[in-house]
Amino acid sequence: MTATDDHIDRLPEADAALAPVSSQAERVADMLRSFVINGSLAPGVRLSEERLSRKYEVSRNTLREAFRLLSRERLLVHQMHRGVFVSRPTCADVRDLFSVRRHLELPAVRRADRADAEAVRAVGAAVDEGEAARDHADWWAMGTANMRFHQALAALAGSPRLDEFMNQVLAETRLVFHVMNDPEQYHAPYLDWNRRIHTALAAGRPDRAADELAAYLDASETQLVTAFTAMENGS
Mind listing the pLDDT tens digit for each residue in 158-174? Predict the structure, then answer.
């Protein structure tokens, strides 16, 4: 058994991961994207058509179409004569992703006074999830909770199209996080920041929450750019 075989065997079952969408290929793409967001698929992992087809009982043609969809989202890359792999982000990708996230998240937070109470509660629920993961020293689960926190921030805008795009952006962002060898050290300091952002939102202070988020994104980008620069320079 190869490392790729073992990795695919350890992926979640389909029923727990798939969401209803318009076609089988989109359904599979949604499943694989969710695996990237929750950390189950890491940069550089090869996706075997044969094993994925057998595990999830879908045709190879369906898988190939799903691969094409995710390649357009920069989550997968096809290497000639080698196969399909989960993408490896670069330092330039980090900078671009954070630029996009500022355009998506900050306006949603600044206008959070127009959001319904349930949307604000979803932000708090993601913070609660992260704190519970921290209490159990489950650092990858804390990273997944952080993804849900940022999904919930974007969802304050109340736009299904923005939600869909945000999922794509956060999937790429989760690939970026894999470069941080110590997920506890990276994610833990931001959890208290998440709580402050939610507290400001719950108190009806969206401008304060947006200021906290802007500083948060600046700090996170700087930390990741530093790590990627060192990695790309071989240091």
Answer: 999 999 999 999 999 98
Give whole-number Cα distances, 132 to 27, 123, 126, 188, 214, in Å. 30, 15, 10, 12, 25
User: Are residues 123 and 210 located together in one domain of the fold?
Assistant: yes
Task: Answer positive or negative: Cα dihedral of 155, 182, 224, 186.
Answer: positive
My answer on whether 164 and 61 are in the same domain is: no
| Strand pairing class (46-47; 83-86) | antiparallel
By residue range, what is the domain housing residue 35?
Answer: 3-86
Q: Which two tokens stand for residue 133?
A: 């993961």
Give 52's Cβ-side CA count (13 Å radius): 24
Long-range contacts of 28-32 (CB under 8 A, 24+ apart): 28/56, 28/58, 28/62, 28/63, 28/66, 29/66, 29/69, 29/70, 31/56, 32/66, 32/70, 32/75, 32/76
Coil, helix or strand at residue 102: helix
Structure tokens at 163: 């939600």
pTM: 0.83
Give the model's pLDDT for residue 17: 47
Total domains, the chain: 2
CB of 130 closer than 8 Å to CB of 149: yes
Residue 187: CB atoms within 10 A of its CB come to 24
